[in-house]
Amino acid sequence: MARQTRLILLVLGGAVAAAALTLVIAVYVLLQPDRFTATLQNQARAAGLDLRLASPASPSLFPRPALELRGITLSAEDGSTPILLAARGRLALPWHTFFGGPTVISQLQIDSPRVDLDALQAWMAALPAQTGDKPLNIPRIDTGVEITHGSLVRGNEVLLDNLSLHAGSLVSGQPFPLRMTANVDGAPWQLRMSATPHIEGNTLQLDNISLHLAQASAVTLSLDGRAHWHGAADAVASLAGKLDRADAGQYDISLRLTPANQHDPLLLALKLDGPGNHADLRLPPLALAQWWNQLNNPDGPQLVMPPGSGHAEFGSIDAGNVHIEGLTVQAGDNVPAAAGSSAAPPSTGASK
To answer: Is 328 in contact with 316 (CB distance < 8 Å)?
Structure first.
């Protein structure tokens, strides 16, 4: 009896081992991690990006089919600084994708990503405008995106820390909800946004935008509107709403983005009206970002007026450790062109 029992256990053990080996082989055959890794790299390359992994993607079937990614580095093809570094990521995939169906991501999870703002801005500025009738394609993510323990940096400066992001399904024609929390200079901020993405030819359109940004009970910004993007600096947006400051009152605010052309850069028209603060400004976002970078660089040139035109009267401004009271700005009508353009610089003046 003991010999028969041992024989039965050996047979059962061998069957279990064979089944486990078969399952492991089936996982690799079905998931084909090399195919999916190549697909992701090809899609990144089509956007001018270089995607690299510290080790090959590893597949798993439980609790749902997925690919595990480790040591993620995403850079512009000709860039020296990575746009994104992440410890690990996970792509959950639907079953039909394994059997030759379209490559669809059920869920995207990224742990501890580090995004460099300068590298991101450089990549976006180098994007070519969409030409011809080639349609745009946005990735379909059925059940959402989750990012934990993230950070946004500029060089060695941390702009956002302890960033957490949760988003719903990303499908053309369906509402896309997004929720994000992060620390800015140690203070917690919350962002809630929803929009409905549409692809119309070679244009990405965002309808029914609703944005709510808050820092505890001190500051709340609520905006509604729409936008569309045609590639590079060819973007249009129109948003309007309210800005509430607990210690200052409520303001009407509107933002209007107009695309770049042969004569003018991408422009943001900002209007603000409320107790003690009034502004009607036209600002070139890309040139303004360059100015801000120089402002935070102790080895940069001496302080100059930010690029833009219009007028503004601020009772008080708090930006990080800087506090300014009674600021009035008057700027000329000409807005400086983006790098590479020949437009003349503006004449500006300011009083405090």
So the answer is: no
Do strands 277-283 and 267-274 pair parallel, antiparallel, or not at all (unpaired)? antiparallel
- 123, 129 in Cβ contact below 8 A? no
Cβ burial 243-269 (10 Å sphere, 16+ → b, else e):
bbbeebeebebbbbbbbbeeebbbbbb
The pTM of the full predicted model, rounded to 2 decimals, is 0.71
Structure tokens at 311: 């007028």
- What separation, in Å, do the N-terminal and C-terminal C-alpha atoms of the chain show? 99
Query: Beta strand pairing status for 157-167 and 49-60?
Result: unpaired
Mark residue 27 as left, alpha or beta (left: phi above 0; alpha: psi -120 to 50; beta: remaining). Answer: alpha
Question: Which 8-state DSSP code applies to residue 344?
Answer: P
Q: What is the per-residue pLDDT across 282-301, written as a single tens digit (0 to 9) for each?
A: 888 777 777 666 665 666 55
C-alpha span between 82 and 122 (Å, rounded): 11
